[in-house]
Specification:
With 68 residues, this protein is mainly α. Helix content is 68%, strand content 0%.
């Protein structure tokens, strides 16, 4: 049974979380304008997405359990 999400969906979700986090940090600490916030968030999203695309592996089979 395959009960994992597709690889692409996982990469998008994780990269979006980092992008939103960077928007929040940029708005509070650096006090950037809205255009700059969007640029910073999309830049972090793209960077994290590329890193995940290079290193994300397909799920591996778990340990073999003896059947009774």
């Amino acid at each position: 049974m395959k009960d994992t999400a597709p690889k692409l969906t996982g990469m998008i979700v994780v990269a979006a979380m980092f992008g939103l986090l960077s928007v929040g940090v940029s708005s509070v600490i650096f006090e950037l304008e809205q255009g700059s916030l969007a640029l910073a968030g999309s830049g972090v999203f793209a960077l994290v997405f590329v890193i995940l695309a290079l290193g994300w592996r397909e799920p591996q089979n778990g340990p073999n359990r003896p059947t009774k």
